[in-house]
Amino acid sequence: xxxxxxxPDRNIPTRLNIQIVNFIKNKIATGEWSVGFKLPSQRTLxxxxxxxxxxxVAALEELKAEGIIHGNAGGGTTVINxxxxxxxxxxxxxxxPYLSSxxxxxxxxxxxxxxxxxxxxxxIRMGSCEPSxxxxxxKMIQGVLKKLSKSMPSLGYEEPKGSIQLRKEVCTYLKTxxxxxxxxxxxxxxxxLQALQIISIGLLHKNSVIYVExxxxxxxxxxxxxxxxxxxxxxxxxxxxxxxxxxxxxxxRKGEMLFTIPTFQNPTGSVMSxxxxxxxxxxxxxxRLPIIEDxxxxxxxxxxxxxxxxxxxxxxx
Length: 317
Hints:
3-stranded antiparallel beta sheet, 4-stranded parallel beta sheet, alpha/beta
């Protein structure tokens, strides 16, 4: 039995497994545990350090990844290297324990396969709704950017809500679709997922039920789950989300919000009818159920229509 009087300090921010890694490294660096030294079993180390066995396993995996120890099934774990280069801090870390224990959960295998397939040149990326390169009016965009560069006063940080000019333009656009809003009520985000993260952190409690369409946007589901929310799928038909299923679900299990993509729904591509939208708004008003609308594809449709007009005019010249 080794005479080890040290235990990880639970009152400091350094993770327990990293403290164990540093302790073992120190033992090896000082020569107390030389090359060929056989470490105690995982169970023994967990008892000595007064930690869970999983914490010891994580520490040993880190040391294995750095090439300092080696373990064989049934043969125990042995120190195999004590060179200065391996014992220094300038080594390649095994980041897997950090990633697996982080707040944001990893995607399921099917989602990872979809992500990989999106970048294959022979596959059309329908999910991101990107226009074909030949449809983009590059010369027109370059002209706009040249004019913009002359009018940019600063490249410093914007105020937290985003550029006031951009927020005013957003409000101007919203008026065209019947939404009256003041720029002070607009927050610019880097995309839908950041907006959902802010909503999850700032407005919701852990384990809150979020109603989502079934099926719904893959990344939104993972975002809600990573922040401790519970997505609850609501059935859809050709006109959009089924109001009856939503209300029945809400009676059984009170939800906090509804997340919906009524215009060119991802992944089905369906468009919720105007009548269904009115019924949905009235139902949510009665139940005091807030609605998060992902309306990312509405302007893309307008953009495509403008491209068609632009190209047709050029063809007529």
